[in-house]
Design brief:
CATH topology of the largest domain in chain A: Cytochrome Bc1 Complex, Chain D, domain 2
Order of helices and strands of chain B: HHHHHHHHHHHHHH
Number of helices of chain B: 14
Number of helices of chain A: 11
Helix content of chain B: over 70%
CATH class of chain B: Mainly Alpha
Radius of gyration of chain A: 24 Å
CATH architecture of the largest domain in chain A: Orthogonal Bundle
Strand order of the largest sheet of chain A: 1-2
Strand content of chain A: under 5%
CATH superfamily of chain B: Cytochrome c oxidase-like, subunit I domain
Largest interface: A-B, 74 and 76 residues
Number of domains of chain A: 2
Largest sheet of chain B: none
Distance between the termini of chain B: 23 Å
Structural class of chain B: mainly alpha
Shape of chain A: elongated
Number of strands of chain A: 4
Oligomer: heterodimer
Number of domains of chain B: 1
Shape of chain B: globular
CATH superfamily of the largest domain in chain A: Cytochrome c-like domain
Order of helices and strands of chain A: HHEEHHHHHEEHHHH
Largest sheet of chain A: 2 strands, antiparallel
Structural class of chain A: mainly alpha
């Protein structure tokens, strides 16, 4: 039968071996992290952005690298998913962007601070994370749908889909935009996108930071969403 | 109670009751927000509620461990505590630091690193405070009339917990470094040295409650904590799959993380076997219930449910979802909250001299809180798995998925109400026991009165 002395030896030797292995792996990991995270790209703006990220406790609701509060969206790849313009608009006035939805606090960031946060999220977006986040394997990945998505304006795929769905994917905040061209004329869409509350006072749709080129691109795209003409 | 100075532990336990009650209030705020009712958003936004909820948990568990040490160590070392005034000062300072931190959270003063939200200046106060505690306990052990394995395991667990707080204070600019060190604190606490503390308390309780020979109990304690470190140290790797660290952590974390349940299974077998073999049936049956319950619930919550999402192929989809909340709630409850409530149930009648341990309210407290927690875990589990499927597999939008999950949070609130009923009963029983004015027993006397010994089979 096992003696107490043998049990103690098992504990001490096991702990010592594992601790040494762990310290060794830690040293090796720290040698590899700079390359894997593109640490050379950590500019002063990125560092300030991380500081803001920490001191606003963003992780208390959002997740980053999958770590955080599970209450608000995962932001690891938000830079490529939504783009800098959407992030800026969101940080300027969080409640305007997702009307009637789960609310985010307004931190009243300055424009310089918003730039720092965007720089931070952009750096995070470039990290090699061993395959995280995974592609949704059961999403409608038929060649037809993928081709349709790539034919849409980039601004539509980044900003509009945050609230509106098309072809069954996207947000559920505003109405779906399938066949919107049947209902709305190009000149109405143009006025609407430039200033929604001027067209319909009290609307929940926010005024988005769109350039003239983006507006005309969106108007063309949306007015082609008709029942007979499939893009 | 054998020594006058053990009384000081009552104040730590009373603090636990206060902080635990407040923790539950903040839990409800978060559950209502998840269910779509964030009426307090302007005053207590979700991240403030979350930081408060988790930091209160850490604080009351630490308070409970300290109280347990102040109760157990004098008896194990067979001498009075080194300094009672130092213990009181240390408790006062801990509470002051904690309350400052929690008020600060409501005014956007924090560090924003999950579980370690306490702002840096207060971190130093925590370190000083814990050093005072370690000094007090260490001097008691050092000058003790006997050295027991139980007291050494408990002491070194507490000392390592104090030391492992330090990596969390290393300044970083790279988010990956930040996360790497953060897990040194969080993981190596809960899946490492806290298990030592838990094992030490469990071993003390089993010796007291079952009457089984100390040598046997302590031998198996070594085996269990041996397995804890064998799996837990390298098991830290299961937090390093997707944070910008090398791919080999998937192997290291996967293999050693998968072994972590062994230590908890050991605790469960240990608790149940010793309780069944025990020749002496101690009159404090409620304490035995909490002790055995702790060993079983820790295996289910920390061991089994942890294993459920520790493998890298699963974790790729569950990482950063409510599945973690499912595991987290039952793990902390089973392993750490229950061990603190177990030592409290055991110590209270001795500290206060009132033997109300088997009152119906104590029984209701045990069953309602445990059934409530199991139901809460189920609610989190259903929400988590649904989230993984809809968001991570089907690719639905985050907010759209969250709306689908609201109904499960109504379920969570119902389950949590039952849990809260149980905790209220426990607190009520604590209050009924009154002040710590129990008599100090003469050397060699048993804490079981002759009448009680005659009553128990």
């Amino acid at each position: 039968m096992l003696s107490k002395k043998a049990a103690r030896a098992f504990f001490l030797v096991g702990t010592a071996v594992c601790s040494l292995a762990f310290v060794g792996l830690t040293v090796d990991t720290f040698n590899r992290i700079p390359a894997q995270t593109h640490a050379a790209q950590i500019t002063p703006a990125v560092a300030r952005g991380k500081d803001l990220w920490d001191h606003s406790n963003c992780m208390g609701c959002h997740t980053l690298l999958g770590e955080g509060g599970y209450y608000a969206p995962e932001l690891t790849r938000v830079y490529r998913r939504r783009g800098p313009d959407f992030i800026r608009a969101m940080l300027r006035n969080p409640e305007a962007m997702y009307p009637g939805q789960r609310r985010m606090q307004n931190y009243h960031f300055t424009e310089a601070q918003i730039d720092d946060l965007v720089a931070f999220l952009r750096w995070i977006d470039g990290m090699d994370l061993n395959g995280f986040p995974a592609r949704p394997t059961l999403a409608s990945a038929s060649p037809e749908v993928t081709a349709t998505a790539s034919a849409r304006p980039q601004v539509f795929n980044q900003i509009c889909v945050a609230c509106h769905a098309i072809g069954g994917s996207g947000g559920a905040v505003g109405p779906a935009l399938d066949r919107v061209g049947d209902r709305l004329q190009p000149d109405y869409l143009d006025r609407w996108l430039r200033n929604p509350s001027a067209v319909k006072p009290g609307t929940a749709m926010p005024r988005l930071p769109l350039t003239d080129a983006q507006v005309s691109e969106l108007v063309t795209f949306l007015s082609h969403q008709r029942s007979e003409v499939r893009p | 109670m054998k020594f006058e100075s053990q009384r000081v532990s009552w104040w730590f336990f009373a603090t636990c009751m206060l902080l635990f009650s407040l923790q539950i209030v903040y839990g409800f705020i978060m559950a209502f927000a998840h269910a779509g009712h964030d009426a307090l958003h302007a005053v207590i936004p979700f991240h403030a509620a979350r930081a408060t909820h988790t930091n209160l948990l850490v604080m009351w568990l630490l308070c409970g461990f300290m109280g347990a040490a102040y109760y157990i160590i004098p008896e194990e070392a067979d001498r009075e505590l080194h300094s009672v005034p130092l213990a009181k000062l240390q408790l006062g300072a801990l509470v002051a630091t904690g309350v400052t931190a929690i008020i600060g959270f409501h005014f956007n003063w924090w560090e924003g690193r999950k579980f370690l939200e306490i702002p840096r200046p207060l971190d130093f106060l925590v370190v000083v405070d814990v050093l005072m505690f370690i000094f007090n306990i260490g001097m008691t052990v050092k000058n003790g009339r006997r050295f027991t394995t139980t007291s050494l395991v408990l002491f070194f667990g507490l000392l390592s917990a104090a030391l492992l707080y330090l990596p969390g204070m290393i300044p970083t600019t790279n988010q990956t470094h930040d996360s790497y060190w953060r897990w040194w604190v969080v993981h190596l606490w809960v899946e490492g040295v806290w298990e030592l503390i838990m094992g030490g308390i469990l071993s003390y309780l089993l010796i007291k409650l079952t009457g089984i020979d100390r040598e046997v109990i302590e031998k198996w304690l070594y085996v269990i904590v041996g397995f804890t470190f064998l799996s837990g140290i390298l098991g830290t790797g299961h937090h390093y799959y997707f944070i910008g660290t090398p791919n080999y952590w998937k192997w290291v974390g996967g293999i050693f993380g998968a072994m972590e349940p062994i230590a908890f299974l050991g605790m469960a077998i240990y608790g149940v076997t010793m309780a069944r073999k025990g020749g002496r049936a101690h009159p404090n049956r409620t304490a035995l219930q909490w002790t055995v319950g702790c060993s079983i619930m820790s295996f289910v919550g920390a061991g089994f449910l942890g294993f459920a999402h520790t493998l890298p192929s699963v974790n790729l989809y569950t990482h950063g979802t409510l599945v973690t909340a499912m595991h987290g709630h039952m793990a902390f409850w089973g392993a750490y909250a229950m061990i603190v409530l177990a030592i409290m149930s055991f110590a209270l009648p001795n500290l206060t001299g009132r033997r109300l341990h088997d009152a119906p309210s104590a029984q209701l407290g045990f069953w309602a809180s445990n059934i409530g927690m199991i139901a809460m875990t189920l609610a989190f589990g259903v929400a988590g798995v649904t989230q993984v499927y809809l968001e991570r597999r089907v690719g639905m939008d985050f907010l759209a998925v969250q709306r689908e999950l609201e109904v499960h949070f109504i379920g969570l609130i119902l389950a949590a109400s039952l849990f809260t009923l149980g905790v209220c009963c426990f607190v009520w029983n604590f209050i009924r026991h009154g002040w710590p004015v129990g008599e100090v027993l003469a050397a060699g006397a048993s804490d079981v009165t002759p009448e009680e010994a005659a009553r128990t089979p």
